[in-house]
Amino acid sequence: MKSILLSSLLSSALFTPIVEQIKPIDEIQFIKESQTKSKRKIQLVILFDTSSSMDGLLNQAKSRLWEIVNESGSLRYNDEIPTLEIAMYDYGNTSIQNNRFVRKQLDFSSDLDLVSQKLFGLNTSGGDEYCGAVIEDALNQLEWSSNEKDLKMIYIAGNEPFNQGPVNYKEVCSIAQGKDVLVNTIYCGEYMQGVREFWKDGASCAEGDYFNINSDKKIVFISTPYDDQINEFSNKINSTYVAYNRRGVARKSMQSVQDENAVQMNASVANMRAKAKISSNYSNGDWDLIDAFLADSTVIHKLKKEDLPTALKEKSTKELELFVAEKLKEREQIKHQIAQLSIKRDDFIKKKRAEMNDGQVDDLGTAINNSILNKAIQLGFQKLEE
Length: 386
Description:
The chain is an alpha/beta fold and 386 residues long. The protein has helices at 2-10, 29-34, 55-73, 112-120, 131-141, 169-178, 191-196, 199-204, 227-237, 248-265, 267-277, 289-295, 299-302, 317-356, 364-378, and strands at residues 37-49, 75-76, 81-91, 102-109, 151-158, 182-188, 210-213, 382-383.
C-alpha cells in the first residue's frame, strides 16, 4: 500500500516553477540516488591549528567547507555513491587541557550539520603546536575503515615546525601506512619555509601531498544572478524536514543555524551549502521523519506516538504515509529547482573567471579538493561529469 500511495503522489500534477519554467523531471530521481549507496567510504579528517595566528585559516575553512563536501559528493565508485565521513581535531590552543595540546572535536560522522557546527565553534588562542601528536591521536582514536579500497585522508594545516612536540612524525608515518591513511600537509606560509620546517617531508613519508597557502588571504567570491534564488529555495526546503523523537527539535534548529552561519560568510557559501543539502550525503534520518522513511519505509509503523510532533500524533498510519509522501514530493521539487539553478550558477562563474583570466586560488579549499580528486582517482573512484 505504501509503495502505491507514494507512486501516485510522485506522479501527480507537475510542480509549477516559482523562479522560471523548467522542464519536467523524473521526480523519483533523488530517491533512486539515495538507494544506490556504495560500500566504499571516503573518510576525511581535518586537523586545524587553532593557535592565535590561525584566524585566517579558520575563515578559509568556513568559506570552503561546502565546496569540499560537494567535491567529495561528486565522486562515485562503480557508479554508486560512497559514504562520506568527516572527523575533526584542533591543536595548539591554550584552552586544550592536556600536555599535547590536542583536542578531538568530532569522531567520524556523516552528519554535515554537526560538522559545520563544530567548525564554526572553533576559536584561536596561542599555544604549542605538536603536529606529530595530533596526527597520532587521529590515527589511534578514530574508527578507520579496514578496506584498502576506501579513500582515507588526513589533512593537517598549520605554520610551526612540523617536528615539534613529544611525538616523532616519522614514527607516525608508519602507523598511517599500516592503516592505508594518506597524510596531507598544508603549510600556512611560504613554500620553501614549509619545506625547511619539515611539512613536505611529513607528507612524503605518509604518501600524501604537500601544499602551501596564504592563510590570511581572504576568499574572493563571484556574485551571480542566481544567488538569492538558490538561498530562497534552501530556506524553503527546510519546511519539508519533519522533526521527530526527543532530539528532533534541536537538530532542526541546528539546520537553520548552519544555514545562517553560511550566509554570514557570504551568499556564495550559502549557495554551496544549498547544493550540499540536495545531495545524498545530506541525510538526517536520525531526526527527520522524511529521511527516516527513505531509509526504512516501515519506520512509520515503529514510531511511538510520543516521538511524533504534536500535529501528527493523532494521525492514523495511512494518514502519516500520505503526509510523508506529500512532504517527499515537495522536497524533490525544491531539490530540482536548486539543482537547475546551481548548474546555471556554476556556468556563470566559469565564464566570469575566464573573462577575468582568474586562475585557481591557492587556499585551504582548493588544496583539499585537488588532493581528494587525485587520490580518489588513483583508488578507482570516478568523478561525475559536470
